[in-house]
Write a structure and sequence with these properties.
There is one protein chain. By secondary structure, this protein is α+β, with helices and mostly antiparallel strands. The protein has helices at 31-44, 83-101; strands spanning 17-26, 47-57, 65-76, 104-105. Helix 1 crosses helix 2. The longest helix is centred in the C-terminal third of the chain and has 19 residues, at 83-101. It starts with 16 loop residues before the first strand and ends with a strand.
Length: 106
């Protein structure tokens, strides 16, 4: 029997912002360890976030690091985000992943 539960996503009437970000991480680090601090930044600010993985690059199998690239699309349900707010959000993402897993945005 089909479930009668439905899931709804609140759509914003304000424009979304799109950014691509590449994060350099230790090669042993798992994907979710990077996602969690990113999602936390947006949750703390009550922003809608769609995060899409784009690529994983590791120069050689023994390279000590790998690069994880993501496409971020985010918006507010309260207002249009201005350039200063967008920059502050991206700086918070960088700080969060650095503190959480020692990663750096490149």
């Amino acid at each position: 029997q089909p479930s009668s539960k439905s899931t709804s996503i609140k759509l914003s009437k304000f424009p979304s912002v799109e950014r691509d970000v590449t994060i350099k991480v230790p090669r042993d680090l798992d994907y979710n360890s990077v996602l969690s601090p990113i999602k936390q930044v947006f949750a703390e600010r009550e922003l809608n976030l769609t995060l899409t993985p784009v690529s994983i690059y590791q120069a050689t199998p023994v390279s000590p690091t790998k690069n994880l690239s993501f496409h971020l699309q985010f918006s507010s349900n309260k207002k249009t985000l201005d350039n200063g707010e967008i920059s502050a959000i991206m700086e918070a993402v960088e700080k969060s992943v650095k503190q959480a897993v020692g990663a750096e945005i490149i």
